[in-house]
Amino acid sequence: MPRRALAKHRPWLLASLIAGISYFFVSDDPIGGTWLMLWKGAGVAFLAAYAAFRARALDGLLITLVMVFGAAGDIALEISFLVGGSLFAIGHLLASALYLRNPREKATLSQVLAGATLLFLTPVIAGTMTYGLDNWIVATAYSAVVGAMAAAAWTSRFPRYRVGVGAVMFVVSDLLIFGREAQVVPEAVTSWLIWPLYYGAQFLIAVAVVQTLRKGAQRAVA
């Protein structure tokens, strides 16, 4: 039964991969318009559908909403950087709540230090890169939310080398965006790295969180 259920919902992941990977190759289409915006949001939207069908209870709702706000943020960024960033910030706050609800039983000193580093260095780096731009304070505040999410993910019970690494990839992707806006990171670098890091992060996080929640639910039933 579990394998049959996984096979039933695996098409959501396949659809996400097709949308997310293909978008990378069409993202610079100058006449994309609405269809390109929807294409951009489709990869994470399919992850939201996957989470909605596979996960249960409050934690399942949280990871679903994280992906919903991520997909909405992807689309909104094409219209307004501020609106898109706000939607992502809400998603990060929901993700932080999810991770804090699921702490690691025994976090090692290195794990705690890594979490603290993500928490404090993320906004510091963002603020340093964007200082002098009109919205550098907003960028720094947003990065503080992203850093808090990554710190919570790294010290949660979810697989560190999937959810934790995914959260770090998210941080790097966002920092590259700010580096591009501040013109401190070359476009030749950001154009190749931002989307793969971002989409890869969302995919790793969604799949690993859902799988972990389902394993926990199956043990509880047993």
TrEMBL record:
<dbReference type="Pfam" id="PF07947">
    <property type="entry name" value="YhhN"/>
</dbReference>
<feature type="transmembrane region" description="Helical">
    <location>
        <begin position="33"/>
        <end position="53"/>
    </location>
</feature>
<keyword id="KW-0812">Transmembrane</keyword>
<feature type="transmembrane region" description="Helical">
    <location>
        <begin position="60"/>
        <end position="77"/>
    </location>
</feature>
<feature type="transmembrane region" description="Helical">
    <location>
        <begin position="112"/>
        <end position="130"/>
    </location>
</feature>
<feature type="transmembrane region" description="Helical">
    <location>
        <begin position="136"/>
        <end position="154"/>
    </location>
</feature>
<comment type="similarity">
    <text>Belongs to the TMEM86 family.</text>
</comment>
<feature type="transmembrane region" description="Helical">
    <location>
        <begin position="83"/>
        <end position="100"/>
    </location>
</feature>
<feature type="transmembrane region" description="Helical">
    <location>
        <begin position="192"/>
        <end position="210"/>
    </location>
</feature>
<feature type="transmembrane region" description="Helical">
    <location>
        <begin position="12"/>
        <end position="27"/>
    </location>
</feature>
<keyword id="KW-1133">Transmembrane helix</keyword>
<dbReference type="InterPro" id="IPR012506">
    <property type="entry name" value="TMEM86B-like"/>
</dbReference>
<feature type="transmembrane region" description="Helical">
    <location>
        <begin position="161"/>
        <end position="180"/>
    </location>
</feature>
<protein>
    <submittedName>
        <fullName>Lysoplasmalogenase</fullName>
    </submittedName>
</protein>
<keyword id="KW-0472">Membrane</keyword>
